[in-house]
Amino acid sequence: MIFVNLPVSDLPASMAFYEALGFTNNPRFSDDTAACMVWSEVIHVMLLTHAKWRTFTSRPIPPPTSSEVSLALSMDSREAVDAMNAAAAAHGGTGDINPVQDLGFMYGRDLGDPDGHIWGPFWMDPEAMPAG
To answer: In 1-132, which residue ranges form alpha helices assigned H by DSSP?
Structure first.
C-alpha cells in the first residue's frame, strides 16, 4: 500500500476537492486534523492540517507555487483525464498547470490541488507505443 501524506491549509475544502476527483474518504483514518482519501485499495492520500504535518517534521511546508513532487495517476481513457482536469478546475484546484502532453499513445494533463500539490492524470496505450 502507498500512503501519500500532504499538508493542507483547509482540510474540509481539500476533502471536497479530492472527493470531486473521485477519491473516497475512509472515516476510520480521519479526524479533525487528518483525512484519509482513497484512490484504490493500494493508493491512499493522507491530507494533514499544517499543525498535524508539523508533528511529523520540522521542515518548512513549501508554498503553493513550488513543486515538491508530481504524482501520476493512470486513468482508463483520455476522457477520464479530461474529466479529472475539469473537476480540479471546478473545485478549487487549477487545471492544466503545465502544457498538455499528447504523444498519441500517451495523453496527460497536470493539475494542482488547492495547496499546489501536483497531480498528473494520464492515459497510455502501451500497444500503440513506438518501438525503441
So the answer is: 11-21, 50-53, 78-90
pLDDT in tens, 82-96: 999 999 999 999 999
Class of the CATH-defined domain 68-132 = alpha beta
Percentage of the chain modeled with pLDDT above 70: 100
* 73 burial level (CB within 10 Å; 0-12, 13-18, 19+): middle
Distance, in Å, from the CA atom of 97 to the CA atom of 108, rounded to the nearest integer, reads 11
Second-level CATH architecture of 1-56: Roll (3.10)
User: Do β-strands 43-49 and 2-8 pair in parallel, antiparallel, or remain unpaired?
Assistant: parallel
Same fold, 1-56 and 68-132: yes
Average pLDDT over residues 19-31: 98
pTM score, whole prediction: 0.91
Chain centre to alpha carbon of residue 55 = 22
User: How distant, in Å, are the alpha carbons of 51, 61, 124 from that of 93?
Assistant: 22, 18, 24
